[in-house]
Specification:
heterodimer; A: 112 residues; mainly beta; four-stranded antiparallel beta sheet; 11 strands; 0% helix; 57% strand; B: 116 residues
Amino acid sequence: SQTIHQWPATLVQPVGSPLSLECTVEGTSNPNLYWYRQAAGRGLQLLFYSVGIGQISSEVPQNLSASRPQDRQFILSSKKLLLSDSGFYLCAWGEYSNQPQHFGDGTRLSIL
Amino acid sequence: AQKITQTQPGMFVQEKEAVTLDCTYDTSDPSYGLFWYKQPSSGEMIFLIYQGSYDQQNATEGRYSLNFQKARKSANLVISASQLGDSAMYFCAMTAGGTSYGKLTFGQGTILTVHP
């Protein structure tokens, strides 16, 4: 069966520090991968998606970037974090648009 | 572009009663999918139910059913026989178009509280 792992679960970072969140998927090949961000009490906003190795599409301009160095690995990064980058970050994978996406457990990021 | 609207910030229901969570959507694409997810306080996103735009019948999954009214562009979630464990945030979401790569557009969510 397929599983998705996302870490760390919680992260507290100072403003201006770098960021690296990692997500890996097991049990499937060439999945579509997604990074979402959720502000407190709000819906999820799609940040990036990837349909293959090295293929990244950005949905919103921001201080973040994403990479897919391997088929089942998706990384969210920043060189210098801003206060506005705080939030709950969720990684997800999917195969077809008529099937549900499956989410990781999320990372709660606090910027001080 | 797609848009999902959930107009109920919070809903209350008595245990064992049914509750309907509202969702309206907007898209110009004739092919789309509608999803409902549950998010407990722990933060995980749990898939509940799916409805395709060409599906003739309303989707059902156990105690969950989706009241799909295409002409009104609504996709309400009905939870029958509510349980205390149903207390959570509920999100309506959609994908649209063959080249959307499954990207989900989410509504703002509805917080459901089940009272004993």
